Amino acid sequence: MSATETVTLVLGEDSPVPETAADVEDLVLRLRGHVNQLGTLMPSQEPALLRAQQLCSDGLPEGYLPSRVHLVKLAEATQELIAKVRLDDVGARRPARGLARWKPQINVLRGAVFAVALTCLVWAASVPRT
Q: Is-above-0.85 flag for pTM?
């Protein structure tokens, strides 16, 4: 399951509140894994990453309401990391595309060669024979 799907599972409007403590623990473990994966894609001193790592290192609180609040905070922190990674990823790709030279597709080249060959054939057929 991707990080976005897990965050949507927790924060989505239509998502039910986890009923059992095992469900909460499972979601927290998934989110911790996503935070670890996303942490490798950004600088280690990123404030959003440090907040998410702090939430991951905190233990799961006892009780129905505190555990669900912790789960929501962790999901929000993970959502922030996803947004940062996407923003950095888009920013890193843009300059590379600007510098890249346009390369036509193979079918464009085939069509151009066919058009030139057909033009030469029509021109050769229209020249009178002597």
A: no
SS (H, E, C) 75-97: HHHHHHHHHHHHHHHHHHHHHHH
For 8-50, how does the pLDDT look when each residue is reduced to its tens digit (9 = 90+)?
A: 988 888 888 888 999 999 999 999 999 999 988 888 888 989 9
How does DSSP assign the chain, residue by residue? --HHHHHHHHH-TTPPPP-SHHHHHHHHHHHHHHHHHHHTTS-TT-HHHHHHHHHHHSPPPSSHHHHHHHHHHHHHHHHHHHHHHHHHHHHHHHHHHHHSPP---HHHHHHHHHHHHHHHHHHHHHSPP-
- 61: amino acid identity, one letter: P
Distance (Å, rounded) from C-alpha 2 to C-alpha 8? Answer: 10
Count of CA atoms in the C-beta half-sphere (13 A) of 35: 25
